[in-house]
Amino acid sequence: MGLWIGTPALNATENIIWQKLANRTQGGRAVGGRLHLTGTRLLFVPNHIEAITGGKRWEAPLTQLRAVGRQSPDGGLFSGGIRTRLRLDTDAGTELFVIDPIDEAIAILDAARTS
Question: What confidence score (pLDDT) does residue 2 get?
């Protein structure tokens, strides 16, 4: 995808239909990278520096995305918790992302979840 952020591993028939820079809450820190939406999955790819320092890739099939919404600030200084975050409830648990504009992300991801 670029020099700073790696390319997501896509299936042969898969295309990225939306993407946005985001920080994913991982443990006690916010990992910088990019959130990608395809017709079947949502994927997060950390930037190269974050990957070297333990930032993990993440993905979830859209069929396992149960809810899209907001997570109120919880005060977590390094986890992105001083801002309202995008909340994704999946079959595997909850994922939180700092993303702008949050309203656009919620609308796009909720529409993808229900289509």
Answer: 62
Q: In this structure, what token pair is assigned to residue 47?
A: 């930037």
What are residue 29's phi and psi, to 5 degrees?
Answer: -140, 160
Q: Tens digits of per-residue pLDDT, 26-58? A: 999 999 999 999 999 999 999 999 999 999 999
Nearest Cα to Cα of residue 58 among 29, 84, 24: 24
Give the tens place of pLDDT for each residue, 13-26.
999 999 999 999 99
| Residues spanned by the domain of 101 | 16-114
Please check whether residue 12 is in contact with residue 19, taking contact to mean a CB–CB distance below 8 angstroms.
Answer: no
Q: Which class for 14: exposed (0-12), middle (13-18), buried (19 or more C-beta within 10 A)?
A: middle
Q: Give the CATH number for residue 45.
A: 2.30.29.30
Domain contains 80: yes
Can you tell me the distance from the alpha carbon of 18 to that of 22, in angstroms, rounded to the nearest whole number? 13
State the total domains in the chain. 1
